[in-house]
Amino acid sequence: MGRRRIRSRIRKSHFYTFRCLRPKTLEDQGPHVINGPGYTRIVHCNQPHMHLAKPLRYRSNYVSTTRYNMLTFLPKCLYEQFHRVANFYFLVAAILSVFPLSPFNKWSMIAPLVFVVGLSMGKEALEDWRRFMQDVAVNSRKAFVHKGSGDFGRRAWKRIRVGDIVRVEKDEFFPADLLLLSSSYDDGICYVETMNLDGETNLKVKRCLDATLVLERDESFQNFSGTIKCEDPNPNLYTFVGNLECDGHVYPLDPNQILLRDSKLRNTAYIYGVVIFTGHDTKVMQNSTKSPSKRSKIEKRMDYIIYTLFALLLFVSFISSLGFAVMTKLLMPDWWYLRPDKPETLTNPTNPLYAWVIHLITALLLYGYLIPISLYVSIEVVKVSQATFINQDLQMYDSESGTPAQARTSNLNEELGQVDTILSDKTGTLTCNQMDFLKCSIAGTSYGVRASEVELAAAKQMAMDLEEHGEEVTNLPMTKGRTKRYAKLASRTSSDFELETVITASDENDQKKTTGVKGFSFEDNRLMDENWLNEPNPDDILMFFRILAVCHTAIPEVDEDTGKCTYEAESPDEVAFLVAAREFGFEFTKRTQSSVFIAERISPSGQPVDREYKILNLLDFTSKRKRMSAIVRDEEGQILLLCKGADSIIFDRLSKKGKDYLGATSKHLNEYGEAGLRTLALGYRKLDEAEYSAWNSEFHKAKTSVGADRDEMLEKVSDMMEKELILVGATAVEDKLQKGVPQCIDNLAQAGLKIWVLTGDKMETAINIGYACSLLRQGMKQISISFNNVEESSQDSEAAAKESILMQITNASQMIKIEKDPHAAFALIIDGKTLTYALKDDVKYQFLALAVDCASVICCRVSPKQKALVTRLAKEGTGKTTLAIGDGANDVGMIQEADIGVGISGVEGMQAVMASDFSIAQFRFLERLLVVHGHWCYKRIAQMICYFFYKNITFGLTLFYFEAFTGFSGQSIYNDSYLLLFNVVLTSLPVISLGVFEQDVPSDVCLQFPALYQQGPKNLFFDWYRILGWMGNGVYASIVIFTLNLGIFHVQSFRSDGQTADMNAMGTAMFTCIIWAVNVQIALTMSHFTWIQHVMIWGSIGAWYIFLALYGMLPPKLSGNIFHMLDEALAPAPIFWLTSLLVIAATTLPYLFHISYQRSVNPLDHHIIQEIKHFKIDLEDERMWKREKSKAREKTKIGFTARVDAKIRQLRGKLQRKHSVLSVISGTSSNDITSNPQQT
Question: What's a single GO MF annotation on this record (predicted)?
């Protein structure tokens, strides 16, 4: 089916001055020189079969983000498993257990190892399978591909090949890197959204070559052919060099004709393109890195603890084997029952060295239970269970999209509780890419009474703070009214506080209400419904509305069903302005090649009047110009220049007569900025015919010129016209943050986390969002690192640029050091070009030191690669845990580079989620993920590992003591079945319950006391002091258990008939004491009990007695020396039960003393909260509870709490100064009265 043009034959390229890509005549400059390394790719257009054989056989379009495949899973996974020290040890031990030297049955060593490694490999396989299924979903997307003879059919992305002609339709993603051939517009213009690549929300304008414009229908490709010679695959998003050979001509190609994979076609019905790069050759995949295998810091430290236990194992094994060798040499001749006259090789007194070596191997196997083999598998089980709780947390479930939180890997659960720095993307992560027209300043008057999200959040915090500090502040006479006002604003926020729907109004009884118009949250009756005609300056207001409605490049689209008009523009700001103009009564309804039509309601009757404005010139917005102008002729023939731009730019171009409202407007702009709003200033200028004609002639020359200085000439000519402006007013647009972002950032800051923003957006946008998120605020000193453009090819210029940047960094660091105000806050702002030099090896650590000293860091215009490099610098340079969060393909690099990667499962593809370790639907859920689940998981895993070492030392050292007691014989006091059950069954479930269910405080308390989170970054529960303390506790417990059992059972009878305990009876009694001691210890460790924990702890103890009874009932051939051990030997003896009680009391006494002393003398934060909760003091004294919560904030200089604190300090300063003045005045009056008593 043929495709037809649908845009009323509007040639969009005529709308642009600076971004019309290049004039047509540039194609005549000649092709690029394509040769040498890096420029070897040849693409045969419309002939994909030419690329099936080498050397033109390129990669397929199949994309994989998995860690393994069918061939590599077994070797890679086995390597990772046995890369763990403990697993490798038990592999060697399992191999040695096959030989006669082993003191145990071989299956007691092999079975646990197979179980542990198999379970871990199964978990890895399951997680990688999920990644594989997400890859399948992406690779199975469909696109229209030319099948031949002018017919297009749908084909899966993975089957698209280099050279294929594809047709992409509106709002579809590009399946590969394409060369644009034509579009639905007559001149080959198309709009592209690259948010997945660089985070920018502004649409990019792409334009095809004039030579391919004729390819406007499906049938046009029946006989089309051509050859592309271009650069090889590389990660540079903003460069492309190549030539197109077509119909005997060669045309140069540049980035303006390239459509990159994972960017989206917008505001264009369809485009045709030829595939250049596929799969992992595409630029977005070239910017990605291999999915790394991440390990948490606790797991890495656990390796060192394993090494410590190995050292202990080697030490006791050496002592044991040395003792055996000494006894063999000195005492063996006296042991007649070993037949010293006919000695065996192992006990030959003449060869003690051989005995030492052989016994060393036996001892290494015997004492191997010092190394906890089940630790890894227990941790795996616990982490999977923790991940399940994260996945099923309803408070992290997004009901709008139906998306739950997902722990895509469970290896890093505890790492969530140790984060120091968060590196966040902006667009789609902090913001939802929606602009709302909220306030405006016209003719020196501010309009709009609805509060921004930042104002509401700050007002709520202000009211809380003033309530908490009421005695200090509100008693002062000038603060009472202000306190009421803040409380009134905050009173509108209830427990179901929704910033997006809350408004402020002068009447306390006003109800919450919204306009119901997307992009328009303005509320002020003075401008609505033609009421502006009654304002003091209606002419200025009229001009303000006309600038909004006319000065833009948008296109209206009328819905045939509803008749309503929607707008398609390059940026959401323009859409918000047009929606606002429409609501004010100035609706943009139609655009032709030379005119725009506005339906204006400027009469009290409200009837619209259609007015035509002829577009003479458009001077479009660029990041360098920071302004946009439209030169139009109205119906009266008056020529007007309408201009909107950054206030600093507009103010510099005002005429002397145009500054009437400058002071008031500047004040309003500062207020809007403090409220986190994006602002633009609006101005205009009236032109006479002669002046315009002369200027237009110069402008036309510059526009049609060919050369490198074309843009500079255009800028100079435009600057001649954009001056002598008359200021009309300013707009304030709210870049809608995602729900709950300000509170989330504030709470994370109070938890002591640093937040850096890395975005591809321009600096102004990033700064505006910084204000909206309260990462920036008024009074914060901004450090902007930048340099002038230099020629990259010049080494001297590059060195000069690097030196300049280093000097700026040094000066800024010095400024921070000499700052004496303890409340002073600094923000670092740097762009991508400057960052290129700041990340050089000889500069990056100075840059990092400066960034760490600043309260907030904003990096703008950064590439995906730079995001990853900044993340790596923060991770490796500080040595602390970093978390990266983003939602697009441009964030994949930093997500994979960070210690923890979090993907936002938004609407813009799943690349970030597929590369992440955790995924959430909204940024606000990050607070709960870290402050609740991270805090819990860190403490659970830390306590669990410490306890594991405790119980294994307690158990393993009793083997050593017994062997020493028996002359280092290599004999185990325990039955092999006991050894098998100890780690796998009898002590595994309680420790798993500790790792899964333990809570020091409930989730709501974690959120109310964010400073509790700092226990993780400070590593209070897994430092060497605590680890060695638990190890010492294990040594103590092992000594107590062995000595008490030996002293009680060895020297006296324990049964009524006078029998003494044999080795098996004593071993069983000692093992019983161990089971009781370690399970009671874990019960004392827990702060939070559920019925599951009770079942697992006391059930494990009960399971031991059940096993012993059932095992003893087996025939002697199976049960051996344990035959009827419990019911006939131990249970009838009271001393057996009394010994168990005595051991329990003796082993737990030091821990009880320690925890009692700590809670009484030096309690931790959670100890105090537990006590408050236990005695219900929070319910009896709410004021005290609020005061404790206010103390639980980390001192921070970002977030709206810091903004409120700054306001309170400012308020107190003013009040103190006023009281000082009043005191001076009152003192002077008293002196006057004293000196003039007669007058008195």
Answer: ATP binding
